[in-house]
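Recall from the previous chapter that SMILES is a line notation for molecules. Here it describes zinc ion.
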Amino acid sequence: MPPWIDPFLNRLLSGAGLVPACEGRGPVVLMYHSITRGRKSPPDRWGVSEENFKKQLCLLRSKGWTTLCVRDLLKADPLPPRTVLITFDDGFADNYERGFKLLDAYGMRGTFFIVSGKTGAPDRLSAAQAGEMASSGMEIGAHTRTHARLPELDAARIGEEVTGSKKDIEDMLGLPVTSFAYPYGLFNDTCVEAVRKAGFKVACTTRTGWFGSESDLLRVRRVAVFSFDSLSTFARKVAFAGTDVRWRSMAGYFVDRIRSRIAGNGTR
Ligand SMILES: [Zn+2]
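With both inputs in hand, we obtain:
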């Protein structure tokens, strides 16, 4: 049984996700961190309970959303309508049992950005787990060697963190690593150039918005999912690609939509 959401949101979610990325909207890239055990939402806003995560996956699946990995953004084919990208930052150990295992059980995919220097630490994914996740169709991306605040480092150190993490993970998995996420969402032009020079093809930020609203693949926007998000809030985040999904803000969206419909520039 798909989880219940109110009829308005139900309709909204069924009508969302149909605009291709090239028209400036496109898929939503969701950002998770830890998935905590049980039903209770953790006090840390960056964690999501296993129960809520399951409901969110179940909702996406029941509404016909496709999940892709970040690397799939590079494919020449247009992305399917109703696409969502599920990403996890930091490589927490719980991402194996309660992220990967759940996604796999639902036939869904995700990208896990790991901190290469922390692989195998007590609360982090091990090399063997990352390998199993990669061979099951998940993507392992890089999130630097030490979870550094990149803009605060000199050019040599930025290179070490960025290129080093790519090399570490490629050596560990024996696979190319083409996706990166900036720790704390912090980046500037120097960091972006270091990421490009290292050979990454896509890099995720924490700036909010549609994937298609940003033309540079090294500055991809994401929408954070928080511990306290209700299923309705989650549905609105997917439909609007924003973290500010209060009804008042969304009223503005509908006004814009009606205006563009009257002006005849697209109806979605
Ligand atoms: Zn991080």
